[in-house]
Amino acid sequence: MKTTRILLTLIMLWTVAACKNETADPADDNAKRAFKENNALIGKWKITEYLGDPGDGSGTYHPVEATMAHTIEFKENGEFVEEKGQGQSSVPMFNAYKILDDKRLEMIPIDKKAPSHIWFYSDLSASKVTISYGCIEACSGKYVAVE
Fold first, then answer.
1. Pairing state of beta strands 61-63 and 43-52?
2. CA nearest to 127, candidates 60, 62, 41
């Protein structure tokens, strides 16, 4: 009798797990796979396009000019490094980050008295990612992985 109950319980658990996998959204699986492939954004990224919206939703992505090109790096130890282009301020704002979930980063400023910022990321794969900087109007950058 005890063996029958254990067997029935295992069959029910297996059935529930099988049903859950059948109804899983493939987009969720792709996002998780991409997240894992790039080990949670860890690595160096170079901006290729940027979006700056005037506040009315009419903004589009534009190629990045050489003087505005920059790289960002998310290190395994939580350190954040940014190498800015000639046309940008050379003063870095952030030196650390925390991954909050599969869409959000907490960017930690160098000035510990300043508040942290939330950045959003999407389209993560081993070779690309789109990062939104948390502006009031839409602003983001498309990045490619740098080896």
1. antiparallel
2. 41
Instruction: Tell me the average confidence (pLDDT) per consecutive run of 10 residues in the chain, 147 residues long.
Output: 52 48 52 54 94 87 89 94 81 89 92 93 92 90 92
CA distance linking residue 12 with residue 17, whole number of Å? 9
How far is CA 9 from each of CA 2, 20, 22, 54, 99, rounded to the nearest angstrom?
Answer: 11, 17, 20, 59, 37
CA-closest candidate to residue 68, choices 55, 50, 41, 95: 50
| CA 84/CA 68 separation, integer angstroms | 7
> CA end-to-end span of the chain, whole Å?
60
Secondary structure (H, E, C), 47-111 = EEEEEECCCCCCCCEEECCHHHCCEEEECCCCEEEEECCCCCCCCCCEEEEEECCCCEEEEEECC
What's residue 37's pLDDT? Answer: 47
H or E element at residue 36: helix 26-37
pTM of the model: 0.70
Q: What is the pLDDT of residue 2?
A: 58
Task: Let me know: does 61 contact 142? Beta carbons within 8 Å.
Answer: yes
